[in-house]
Amino acid sequence: MRALRADGAGGVKVLAAQLGVSEATIRRDLEQLHEQGRLTRVYGGALAVDGGDEPFSEVSAVRADEKDKIARHAASLVSDGQSVLLDIGTTALRLAYHLHGRSLTVVTSNLAVLEELQNDEQIELIILGGFVRRSYRSLVGYLTEESLRQIHVDWLFLGTSGVRPDGRVMDSTMIEVPVKRAMIKAADRVVLLADATKFPGHGVAKVCEPSELSMVVTEPGADEATRAQLVEAGVQVVLA
Fold first, then answer.
1. Nearest 10 degrees: Cα torsion 110, 176, 191, 42
2. Is residue 46 within 8 Å of 225, Cβ to Cβ?
3. Interval 142-154: pLDDT, tens
4. How many Å apart are CA 125 and CA 104, to the nearest integer?
5. pLDDT digits over 19-32, tens only?
């Protein structure tokens, strides 16, 4: 359940590899958890149920080293004086940590990023308005989207539930998708931050086509065929 909440969705093969068990075991467990109402079973895997738990706090330590390497590389892309838009998620939080002390403008809907950077006087911090999703520590809704229509930034660092084999970026938290799409429109360069478990990944709603990405920062072990589709679409794929 922690793995599903971290990613929003999970495929049988990915979950089996993550947990070190057989695919048959994963299928049985998913069926049982589906019957208990703790997840939604879909073809090839399962979706997390958006309930009242606190997924952000639970998943912050999941694959922490991998996320930190990705975040550190992402931070190295940004030059002083530039503007940065940070999506929700724990990788974006790690990226914020690596921006400390830099002369930057940071815009975000991520309340954890707010807490991380609020006392850093070198950073000009802009918080988007909106409805507070406490469990995901994010801001969503019309006010968030309208705020994004009023700004433009140099960099967007985007999260995802998964990247389809054809390179499409997906998300399972459907209320966040309109915000992500508005973020893409507000940025000169769009960088997707995704560890190897997201390749290929699952999601019920399309965030964007691969052609809308400038770069993907991932790690060794990310599915080669999916990476090749991204490169074919003109996306720079970097292994942190």
1. 130
2. no
3. 999 999 999 999 9
4. 8
5. 888 999 999 999 88
